[in-house]
Amino acid sequence: MKIKKVLVSQPKPASEKSPYYDIAEKYGVKIDFRPFIKVESVSAKEFRQQKISILDHTAVIFTSRHAIDHFFHLCAELRVTIPETMKYFCVTEAIALYIQKYVQYRKRKIFFGQTGKFDDLLPAILKHKTEKYLVPMSDVHTDEIKNALDKNKIQHDEAVMYRTVSNDFQPGEVFDYDMLVFFSPAGVSSLQKNFPNFEQKDIKIGTFGSTTAQAVRDAGLRLDLEAPSVKAPSMTAALDMFIKENNKE
């Protein structure tokens, strides 16, 4: 069956120059963008139940823009004024630059890694071992950061400040796709929640990342496209190759 309509479970690209639009034009397919999940802040009440005081800390570790948004959102809701002396440690420069949305960017108090891996940020943290760190997290997270900080005897607290929830489909919302593309296990869970009687049949499923691929298999679904790969390091490159092969006469 030819692929004519694809659902990409991500927000619509900000730029019209996105490779997704090139694929749509190249193969005459319709690509819709609709996140299966959304991120929301925990309430002030839920945060207080964790018995963590933000102002007891002298530094914050950010792993994503979501973490920054929800940290400052909660601070505002709790009427917590962050002192000028607070230091920020980010896994990438892009995340560090995003802090400018909330605070004045000063190099002496903002530090970042190059690769996006926490191990790359750790040396900067170790140079500031006397700080007390706060790590804003999602309700779904690994213990990688906790284990690394514990191992190096870094004083810290983890605080759940946001959660990933299903972005539910509305009654009557059309769902007639030849292919679905997922980027997180939560997206696969949302599919099952929204469509408990979902039957895959000829619908193709593509994923980005090994954990998302495993979530599809665990759900008893057929995985047709798994990215990244050596030949296709991005989802768009993988999708381009897959549609070309699938739709050829």
Q: Your description of this structure?
A:
- The chain is an alpha/beta fold and 249 residues long.
- The protein has helices spanning 19-27, 44-48, 65-77, 93-98, 118-126, 144-151, 185-194, 210-218, 235-247, and strands at 5-8, 30-33, 37-41, 59-62, 87-90, 110-112, 133-138, 156-166, 179-182, 204-208, 225-227.
- The strands form 2 sheets. Strands 3-8-7-4-5-6 form a 6-stranded mixed beta sheet, with helices on both faces. Strands 2-1-9-10-11 form a 5-stranded parallel beta sheet, sandwiched between helices.
- It starts with a strand and ends with a helix.
- The model has no long low-confidence stretch (mean pLDDT 93).
Characterize this entry briefly:
This protein is of the alpha/beta class and 249 residues long. It contains nine helices and eleven strands.
* End-to-end CA span: 11 Å
Unreliable segments (pLDDT under 50, ≥5 consecutive)?
Answer: none
- The level of helicity is 25-40%
Tell how many strands the DSSP assignment holds: 11
The number of helices is: 9
Keyword list:
single chain, 249 residues, alpha/beta, 6-stranded mixed beta sheet, 5-stranded parallel beta sheet, 11 strands, 33% helix, 21% strand, elongated
Please outline the helices and strands.
Layout: E1 5-8, H1 19-27, E2 30-33, E3 37-41, H2 44-48, E4 59-62, H3 65-77, E5 87-90, H4 93-98, E6 110-112, H5 118-126, E7 133-138, H6 144-151, E8 156-166, E9 179-182, H7 185-194, E10 204-208, H8 210-218, E11 225-227, H9 235-247
Parallel strand pairs: 1-2, 1-9, 4-5, 4-7, 5-6, 7-8, 9-10, 10-11
Antiparallel strand pairs: 3-8
Helix pairs in contact: 1-9, 7-8
InterPro entries: 4pyrrol_syn_uPrphyn_synt_sf, 4pyrrol_synth_uPrphyn_synth, UROS/Hem4
GO molecular function: uroporphyrinogen-III synthase activity
Pfam family, one: HEM4
